[in-house]
């Protein structure tokens, strides 16, 4: 079973730190587990509830081949982007950002390159830089909902939930009812202690045809944070076996119990207000 701290993302993750919810919140951000991509949906407190659904790593041979092509022709944008994506997929975030930085320097007006670079910076925890790059990755005249969603994630990571929610709202005007945006918005509401709004938004997200297990995971996490563990378990059981769903609900219970512990007991937490974990749905 995949339990606490593993990103429910499109690539494997490694544990960075475990942070407790400051209120009862979840997932976008800074939190528990390391591997994620900024564009998208998250998990609460570093919990990964997706069981064995995580895709495999890119083969080492493929990365070596991409690296060889990149070294022989760094100006090949398509190959460089594929190489950076493979590096991110194998949790080599700093290297991916370094590759994309060079591509961006050679192609400073390429919006796709800037978007990838900004997301990579956010993936590596370099949020201020990510915010600056993502701002240039699209324009008011031609906004990109994926970039807006990534900007929202960065805002959530830095604690500016009101700005994050305005960015998700702007993204939804371009892509109405897109479950990835709705999921991020729901998580942002949870971060700002609006669990009712979080549940409503995530229920709308899971009702969309394109919603996947990760979106349902976020709803289950919010339900768990509201103390509705049986309902959370039923949601998780749609994608996990009964035993695995039950075990993950126990993990949510433990997280909620730790959150409600006396403040003195929580003082040892290195960053008690920032414990979210985003996942990538690209």
TrEMBL record:
Keyword tags: TPR repeat
- Gene Ontology BP terms: protein O-linked glycosylation via mannose
Keyword Ligase applies: no
Task: Mention any Pfam family matching this sequence.
Answer: TPR_19
The residue spans of each TPR repeat are 145-178
The signal peptide here is none
Output one GO MF annotation: mannosyltransferase activity
Residue span of region Disordered: 34-55, 259-282
Return the protein name. Tetratricopeptide TPR_2 repeat protein
In the record, what lineage is assigned to the organism producing the protein? Bacteria, Pseudomonadati, Pseudomonadota, Alphaproteobacteria, Hyphomicrobiales
